[in-house]
Amino acid sequence: MKPRIRPDPDAVYHGSPAPRSDPARSWARLLDALWGHRAARAARAGLHGTAALLFPVDCVCCRRPDAAVCGPCARSLRASCLHPRRVEQRAEALPLDGRLEPMPVVAAGAYEHELAAVVLAFKNHQMPALGRYLVPPLARAVLASLETLVDRGRPVVLVPVPTRLRARTRRGYFPVGLLLSRLRRARVLPAGVQVADLVRYRVARQFTSAQKGKGRRARGAVRGTMHAPVTPLLARLAAAGTQVLFVDDVLTTGATLAEAHRALAGSGLRVCGAAVLAATPAPDEKHHVRATR
């Protein structure tokens, strides 16, 4: 009996099919057919088993062997991030508008269970390959933000909240930038939406400690640490009336987003809100992240 192959529901966020006019389309279809052939699947299964034997790995969520994220945990992660939600009311440090309303933030999911375990491993355990599990949730949060927070018909720029050079050097990559790069390659962003690093940490703050592990009061000390350098790109975006949507990984108090918002004040850009992977209370609150089942 021929085994049934389930389509990947998140495939749209990992890449786009070649257009019909592309001469490489026939080659892409041929390669796709070869990849899905029974013999190719058996060969991949054999290589996977050999790799698991030579380089043993456990699921970062439940510690089952042989996969960085096992099938059940991957499905739970996906199910927990199918419906992005507004979370600005739980972050007391977010900037307020003229009506004393906090800056709107859309989160893909709650910072708990499988999502928290994968985000932690992706950021702090040098496992950039886990980004494939985080791109679809971030894509849903970004698309929901574009649908509800920005004015249609005006250009939009996605601005990743920066990380310090100290953290980037330790990790070897910029987590949010890496996810946005994969999201852009998947071609799921609407026309007129671009990505630009407009905000940076000041040089003197590049090697200070990160926000991770700090309490709510200590997180407020981030004020004055970022700036938005005046560049030709910034001037062009401001002249075009571009709207800004910040993108970050985890929302705790909102102090980092507030500082990024302050850094762009006076630039001529209008900040419409933010999209994040997960929203969580501060670490000093009792909040359990399930690491094992």
Could you walk me through the main structural features you see in this protein, from its secondary elements to its overall organization?
This protein is α/β, with parallel strands linked by helices. 37% of the residues lie in helices and 13% in strands. The strands form 2 sheets. Strands 1-2-8-7-3-4 form a 6-stranded mixed β-sheet, with helices on both faces. Strands 5-6 form a two-stranded antiparallel ribbon. The longest helix has 18 residues, at 131-148. It starts with 24 loop residues before the first helix and ends in a 14-residue tail after the last strand. Residues 1-22 are annotated as: Disordered. It holds the Pfam family Pribosyltran. Belongs to the ComF/GntX family. Residues 192-286 form the Phosphoribosyltransferase domain.
